[in-house]
Amino acid sequence: MQQQILILTIVVMTLVAYPFWRVVRTSQHAPQPPSPAGRIERMRTALLASLAVTGLVVAVATLRPWPHDAHAAPGAQIVRAVGYQWYWELDTEEVTAGRPVVFEVASADVNHGFGVYDPSGTILFQTQVMPGYVNKVKHTFTEPGTYRVLCLEYCGTAHHDMIGEFKVVAAR
Ligand SMILES: [Cu+2]
After folding, report:
1. pLDDT per residue as tens digits for the range 150-161
2. pTM of this prediction?
């Protein structure tokens, strides 16, 4: 499903970008009046181009460890989690550090957000929890401890109470 969404996103982005590209291409063919501010224009163009390249590089670099590319690697631990108003049900209470964990997350009722926090309360990753979908997110825990799952999508009166827990234990 995520693969199809990615392909759809790229296709739609291409369709949206095409008219802009056409306008830019067409405007370059129009005769340019001699401009005293030509140097500034060139600098502006260079700045915009460098910003675009920087943005692309940063986006690709930060998405490289793509957490949603959660194909079950050999040796991965699978944790199935279901969100309910207002609690989490995890089919595993303990995972092992140093081996990838694939969380398969679903909802029994409304939209929730599956946010995993380390023992110090720092969020590690999150994924959306939607009725009718199983979203996968992969993470390899390095530190043993008690981790918490908090709902990150307002889902009703006891949303704040929606806290789950699991343990990460050292590899034996
Ligand atoms: Cu919630």
Report:
1. 999 999 999 999
2. 0.63
- Burial class (CB within 10 angstroms; exposed 0-12, middle 13-18, buried 19+) of 78: middle
Tens of pLDDT, residue by residue over 57-105, are 998 888 766 666 666 567 789 999 999 999 999 999 999 999 999 999 9
122 CA to centre of ligand 1 in angstroms: 18
What is the pLDDT at residue 162? 95
**Cα 83 to ligand 1 centre (Å):** 9
Taking the centre of ligand 1 as the mean of its atom positions, its distance from the CA of residue 159, in whole angstroms, is 4
Same domain, 55 and 134: no
Same domain assignment for residues 81 and 59: no
